[in-house]
Amino acid sequence: MALEAAKKIKEKFGELIFLEEYLTDSDEGRAFNVTTSSNIFVNGQLVAMGIWLDQDKFTKYIQEIVGETKQIKKDVVRHAGYDVVIIGGGPAGLTAGIYCARARLKTVLLDGAGLGGQVMTTDNIENYPGFVGAGSGELIKNMEGQARRFGLEIQTFKRVNQIQLTGSDKEVRAGDEIYSAKAVILATGLKTAELGIPRETELRGQGVSYCAVCDANYFIGKRVAVVGGGDTAVEEALYLSKFASQVYLIHRRNELRAAKILQETAFQNEKISFLLSHIIQGLVGSNFLEGVKVQNLETGDTSRLEVDGLFIAIGSRPHTSFLKDIVALDEHGHVIVNDKMQTSVPGIYAAGDIRVTPLRQVSTAVGDGAIAAISAERYITENRKEE
Ligand code: NAP
Asked: Which of 56, 248, 312, 373 could connect to 96 by a Cys-Cys bridge, CB 3.0–4.6 Å?
């Protein structure tokens, strides 16, 4: 099982291995400090992504890498003299990067993985003005190209785990590297939420998934279920209908929350069946998911739905665990900002899905990114005058 495999890899290689804490919000995740999702870092560097973990193959691979990294002296590498460090390379971070670079600020953008963030889990973006049916990959590639043309430095696979505010510059730490800058823009976005039902963690990657675009391919001609009633759930169901033979959309209320246009498209799709006012009570299957136990909340009846895949799409949590004692967060962990995107700390700004906001869209994220960059520029200029 994926969790077992991840645990064994962690036990074998100890502190050298850092398994990204997708599960930190779950009891199991906290207990083992591992995740079944194999976003695996060695010495702070991402070496593998994806949730389908073959333990033997992976152990061999890690052995080779650890063999190499042990040769490397683990001194901290310092990168000083930046005006701005942007953390996160989704639409908000990349837009901030474009504006900072155009303002001739010496700026580096750090991303824990490749660029794009959550938007890369959507296959098609239909509501970003001016890009009719843009693929998310294309949109991000364009943003990246634009930012690089203006001179933005982009460093991918640098996972930031700490910010220090002791000196006059802010210090941003990613593994063994420290970037210091006058201002920081936080744009780390969101990570997907867990349902919190028994065996969810154990069957993650063994039929339980959080990303249709990533995993739909494994379910060609099979039956799958999606849980959730928002835009993501409906988009996932629509996407999965291109691969699976049957898609069940399970939602706890008797109406969906998703945009009406998405609902209309889904209702017309013959492969999608709706189980409204239903909840998932449990997962069936020993090594791999074989079905889900559902309950009809209106009648109280319970039944078993035979599915090979369950896609959980019940919203997201902000990626802010490394910010807890640094900037003010709301009760859900979103960063609190003012209308200039300034956080509780002067010189630290937040943009996009990570912040407290009534709307989380690509269009709102890019606006935030632009404001954050201009605010950072003004902060730096004013501080220079005072010096
Ligand atoms: P969301 O809008 O927060 O919806 C989450 C859904 O999951 C809701 O239907 C909620 O039910 C359900 N849910 C939450 N906790 C649950 C639980 N424990 N058990 C069962 N169901 C649960 O999240 P989202 O769909 O990921 O969207 C997040 C944001 O991104 C939204 O602002 C959305 O508009 C945006 N987005 C936009 C697009 C687009 O424009 N194309 C695409 C994707 C996402 P209730 O309805 O009962 O609360």
From this structure: 373
Q: Which residues line ligand 1 (CB under 6 A)?
A: 122, 127, 195, 227-233, 235, 252-253, 257, 313-316, 360-361
pLDDT at 309: 96
Report phi then psi at 250, rounded to 5: -105, 120
Residue 56 annotated as catalytic: no
129: nearest Cα among 139, 119, 116: 139
Say if CB 38 and CB 4 are below 8 A apart. no
- The answer to whether the predicted template modeling score (pTM) of the entire model surpasses 0.90 is no
Beta strands 316-318 and 309-312 are unpaired
Nearest alpha carbon to residue 147 among 185, 188, 102: 102
304 CA distance to ligand 1 middle (Å): 24
Q: State the pLDDT confidence band at 51, using cuts at 50, 70 and 90.
A: very low
Q: State how far the Cα of 206 lies from the Cα of 289, in Å rounded to an integer.
A: 6
259-265: long-range contacts, CB 8 A cutoff, minimum separation 24: 259/231, 259/234, 262/231, 262/234, 262/235, 262/238, 263/234, 265/238
Inter-residue contact 163 to 171 (CB < 8 Å): yes
Write the pLDDT tens digit of every residue in 121-168: 777 787 889 888 778 888 999 999 999 999 999 998 888 988 999 888
Q: Is 211 a catalytic residue?
A: yes
